[in-house]
Design brief:
heterodimer, A: mainly alpha, ABC transporter involved in vitamin B12 uptake, BtuC, B: alpha/beta, 4-stranded antiparallel sheet
Chain lengths: ~325, ~260
C-alpha cells in the first residue's frame, strides 16, 4: 500500500520538477523565479514585468513542446501497457507490433496526398489499426512456434514491409517540399509541434485513453487464458477489439504528432510493473506518469546536449536496445 | 441445477460426444471418469457455454444456457481450470478478486464487499496466508486452491472443475477433495473430472463414465465403478476392494500380458 503511494508520489514530483526544468533550460535560460512570476501572472490574469521575450519563449516555443512531450510520452506508455497486458506478452509495444510503422505509413500517405493535420491523424489511425490486425492475424496462425517469439518476429517483419512502403512513397514524393517534410517528420521530433497540431492530436489521444481508464479492471482478465476469462464473465472478443482500437488510437495520435519515437511503449510499462505490480488500474496511471516524465527528460536533453538537436528517438533507442535484449534474455514463462 | 438432455458436443465439423443426458442437483458431486481423449474437457467447455452444443439442450436452473450473456452464465457456473503458472505476477488475492467480475458492471472495480468475499474464499480454502504472494511463485497445489477460491468468490451454484487433482502430490489431492466435499455440504453442486477412480469413491455421490464421447455408465460410484466398466474404459484389469471400514478402492493388477 505505502510502496504504491511512494511510487505515485515520486513519479509525480519528478514529473513536476522536469516540467519546471524543461521550461527553464535552453538557449534562452529562464530562472525558476521568473517562471513562478509568469505563472502567478497568468493564473491571476495580471500583467508582469518580465518582458515579451520570456512570454514568447515560455508560451510559444517551450509550451507546446513540453505539452507534446507529455502527451506523446503518456500516450505511448499507455498503449504499450495495454498491448502487453492484452497479448500476455512483455516484449510487445506499439513499435514492435508494427503499429507505429503502420501509423507512420498512414501519416506519410496523408502528407503525400497533401491532406491536413486531421487527415494525418485519421490515416495514421487507419494505418496503425491495419498493421496490428495484420501482425496479430499472421502471428496467431504461425502455430507450432513459441507464440511470444512468433508475435515479435511477425511485428518486425511486417514493420519492415511497411517501411518499404514508406520508402516507396518517399521516392514518389515531390523532392522540393514533400520529401523534406516526410523525412524530418519520420526522424521523430517534438521541435516542430505547433499549438494547432496539439489541439488536433489531444482529443484523439483522450478518446483512446478513456476506454482504457474505464475498463481498467476488466483489462486484467485479458491476462488470463481466453477460456478462463470468458468463464469469469468477460466477452473477450469484444473487449480485445475495444482495447486494440483504443491503444492504436493513442499510438496514432502520438505518431502523427511527433513521428516515430521508439521504445517508450516497451520500457515504461516494465518499469511501472516493477513498482506497482500488474494490476491494470494501478499500472496505467503510473505508466503514463513515467512515460510523460521519460520523454520530457529525453527531449530536454536532446535540445540542450549539443548545439544541434539530437532526435529523441536516438536517445530512447540507446536506452531501449540494451534493456530489450536484457528482457529477452531473462524472460521465461512469467514476468 | 443443471440438466443436460441428449447433448451432442464437439467442434465445427467434428463431433466429440453424443447422446449424453444427466442432471445435477444442489449440493451434489458428480465425478466424470474417462480415458485421455474421451471428451471430458470438450464436454466441460460446452457446459460452460464456451462451445456451442451441436444437438440437445443444456439448462441451468430451468433456463436454457444458449443465449445467456457471458456474465449471466458466470454468475451461475464457476470454472476451475487445471492450474497454470499465469503470465503476470498478480497476487493470490488479485487472482481471487477476478472471480467477482461477473458481479461488476463493465466499468466497475471491486469494492469492499467484493474484497471481503475474496478474503472469505481464501479463508475457506485455508490459503489466507498466501493472499499477498505472487500467483506465479506459489506451488501447483496452492495455485489449484487459489483457482478454487476464485470460483468460490464467483458465488456460483455450480462449480465445473477440470482435473482439479492433476499434477498435485498425494497430500494436496486429498486436501482438494476435502474442500470439494465441504463446498458440496454448503449446497454447491460440483462437477469434476479425474483420472483416479478412487476420487469418485472418496467424495462423489455419482460417477459418470465416458468412453469415446458416450456415457458408459451413470450412477452411484460403487454401482458403476466395477472391474468390467474400468476395463472397458481404460483397457487394464482392475479389482475393486472393499476395506474393513466399508470404503472402496481400485487395485490394478499388473502383468496381464505375461
Amino acid at each position: 500500500m505505502t510502496a504504491r503511494r511512494v511510487s505515485y508520489l515520486a513519479a509525480s514530483v519528478t514529473l513536476l520538477a522536469l516540467v519546471a526544468l524543461a521550461f527553464a533550460v535552453g538557449r534562452y535560460p529562464i530562472s525558476l523565479g521568473e517562471l513562478a512570476t509568469l505563472l502567478r501572472a497568468l493564473l491571476t490574469n495580471t500583467p508582469h514585468d518580465l518582458g515579451s521575450n520570456v512570454d514568447s519563449v515560455v508560451l510559444q516555443v517551450r509550451g507546446p513542446r513540453v505539452l507534446a512531450a507529455l502527451l506523446v510520452g503518456a500516450a505511448l506508455a499507455a498503449a504499450g501497457t495495454a498491448y502487453q497486458g492484452m497479448f500476455r506478452n512483455p516484449l510487445v509495444s506499439p513499435d514492435i507490433l508494427g503499429v507505429s510503422s503502420g501509423a507512420a505509413l498512414g501519416a506519410v500517405l496523408a502528407i503525400f496526398l497533401s491532406l491536413g493535420a486531421l487527415g494525418i491523424q485519421l490515416l495514421a489511425f487507419a494505418g496503425g489499426l491495419a498493421a496490428v490486425a495484420l501482425v496479430y492475424g499472421v502471428g496467431a496462425r504461425l502455430r507450432g512456434h513459441d507464440p511470444l517469439l512468433a508475435l515479435v518476429l511477425t511485428g518486425v517483419v511486417i514493420g519492415t514491409l511497411l517501411g518499404s512502403a514508406i520508402a516507396l512513397l518517399k521516392y514518389l514524393a515531390d523532392p522540393t517540399n514533400q520529401l523534406p517534410a516526410i523525412t524530418f517528420w519520420l526522424l521523430g521530433s517534438l521541435a516542430a509541434v505547433a499549438p494547432g497540431d496539439l489541439a488536433i492530436a489531444a482529443p484523439f489521444a483522450l478518446a483512446g485513453l478513456l476506454p482504457l481508464l474505464l475498463l481498467r479492471w476488466r483489462m486484467n482478465l485479458l491476462a488470463l487464458p481466453d477460456d478462463e476469462a470468458r468463464a469469469l464473465g468477460v466477452n473477450t472478443r469484444r473487449l480485445r477489439a475495444i482495447v486494440v482500437a483504443a491503444a492504436t488510437l493513442m499510438t496514432a495520435a502520438a505518431v502523427a504528432l511527433s513521428g516515430i519515437i521508439g521504445w517508450i511503449g516497451l520500457l515504461v510499462p516494465h518499469a511501472a510493473r516493477l513498482l506497482v505490480g500488474p494490476d491494470f488500474g494501478r499500472l496505467l496511471p503510473l505508466a503514463m506518469l513515467i512515460g510523460a516524465a521519460f520523454l520530457l527528460a529525453v527531449d530536454t536533453l536532446c535540445r540542450t546536449l549539443a548545439t544541434i538537436e539530437v532526435p529523441p528517438g536516438v536517445l530512447t533507442a540507446l536506452v531501449g536496445t540494451p534493456v530489450f535484449l536484457w528482457l529477452f534474455a531473462v524472460s521465461r514463462r512469467t514476468w | 441445477m443443471l440438466a443436460v438432455d441428449n447433448l451432442a458436443f464437439g467442434f465445427p465439423g467434428h463431433t466429440v460426444g453424443r447422446e449424453l443426458s444427466f442432471a445435477l442437483a444442489d449440493g451434489e458431486i458428480l465425478c466424470v471418469l474417462g480415458p485421455n481423449g474421451s471428451g471430458k474437457t470438450t464436454l466441460f467447455r460446452t457446459l460452460l457455454g464456451l462451445l456451442a452444443p451441436q444437438h440437445g439442450s443444456i439448462a441451468l436452473d430451468g433456463a436454457a444456457l444458449e443465449g445467456l450473456p457471458r456474465a449471466a452464465i458466470a454468475r451461475r457456473i464457476g470454472y476451475v481450470p487445471q492450474a497454470h503458472a499465469g503470465y503476470f505476477a498478480y497476487s493470490v488475492r488479485e487472482m481471487v478478486l477476478m472471480g467477482r467480475t461477473a458481479h461488476l458492471g463493465a466499468f466497475g472495480t471491486p469494492g469492499l464487499r467484493d474484497r471481503a468475499l475474496a478474503d472469505t474464499a481464501l479463508e475457506t480454502l485455508g490459503i489466507a496466508a498466501l493472499a499477498d504472494r505472487p500467483f506465479t511463485e506459489i506451488s501447483g497445489g496452492e495455485r489449484q486452491l487459489t483457482l478454487i477460491a476464485r470460483a468460490l468468490a464467483q458465488e456460483a451454484g455450480l462449480l465445473v472443475m477440470d482435473e482439479p487433482t492433476a499434477s498435485l502430490d498425494f497430500g494436496n489431492q486429498v486436501r482438494v477433495l476435502e474442500r470439494l466435499a465441504q463446498l458440496a455440504a454448503r449446497g454447491i453442486a460440483v462437477l469434476f473430472s479425474t483420472h483416479d477412480p478412487d476420487h469418485a469413491f472418496l467424495c462423489a455421490q455419482r460417477a459418470l463414465l465416458i468412453a469415446e464421447g458416450r456415457a458408459l455408465a451413470l450412477g452411484a460410484p460403487r454401482d458403476v465403478i466395477r472391474s468390467d466398466t474400468l476395463e472397458r474404459l481404460y483397457g487394464v484389469s482392475v479389482r475393486i476392494v472393499e476395506t474393513a471400514g466399508g470404503a472402496h478402492t481400485c487395485v490394478p493388477s499388473l502383468g496381464r500380458q505375461t
